[in-house]
Amino acid sequence: RREPLALVNLKKKNEETGEEELTSRLDHCKAKATRHIFLIRHSQYNVDGRADKDRTLTALGREQAELTGHRLASLGLKFDQIIHSSMTRATETTEIISKHLPGVKKISTDLLREGAPIEPDPPVSHWKPEAV
């Protein structure tokens, strides 16, 4: 319900002419800015690593991140920030991508880490969340 047409009262008419001024009212309700949000998953990583620090990007993963950074830079958009997980693979992916977007602020957060936030219902026998 954020489309301009949904924000205009179509029954309202100009008091003097009795005509609807739909075009001018639609122009008034149009968005004044555009926000682009890109969701990018980390690149391919070593799945055999026992701990997070061992789950680093593979050669293919580094190439994927490089190509992603190149593509984002080619869009010609102004990027304000990159928010990424604190996991090793996400941090590495961000570092590679950010080389193509100089000056863009990088923010690391544990809120984006993979994991099981709540126990599944109904319970499953294989659910064993990590301590983090």
UniProtKB/TrEMBL annotation:
<dbReference type="InterPro" id="IPR013078">
    <property type="entry name" value="His_Pase_superF_clade-1"/>
</dbReference>
<protein>
    <recommendedName>
        <fullName>Serine/threonine-protein phosphatase PGAM5, mitochondrial</fullName>
        <ecNumber>3.1.3.16</ecNumber>
    </recommendedName>
</protein>
<dbReference type="GO" id="GO:0004722">
    <property type="term" value="F:protein serine/threonine phosphatase activity"/>
</dbReference>
<comment type="similarity">
    <text>Belongs to the phosphoglycerate mutase family. BPG-dependent PGAM subfamily.</text>
</comment>
<dbReference type="GO" id="GO:0005739">
    <property type="term" value="C:mitochondrion"/>
</dbReference>
<keyword id="KW-1210">Necrosis</keyword>
<dbReference type="InterPro" id="IPR029033">
    <property type="entry name" value="His_PPase_superfam"/>
</dbReference>
<dbReference type="Pfam" id="PF00300">
    <property type="entry name" value="His_Phos_1"/>
</dbReference>
<dbReference type="InterPro" id="IPR051021">
    <property type="entry name" value="Mito_Ser/Thr_phosphatase"/>
</dbReference>
<dbReference type="GO" id="GO:0012501">
    <property type="term" value="P:programmed cell death"/>
</dbReference>
<keyword id="KW-0378">Hydrolase</keyword>
<dbReference type="GO" id="GO:0090141">
    <property type="term" value="P:positive regulation of mitochondrial fission"/>
</dbReference>
<feature type="region of interest" description="Disordered">
    <location>
        <begin position="113"/>
        <end position="132"/>
    </location>
</feature>
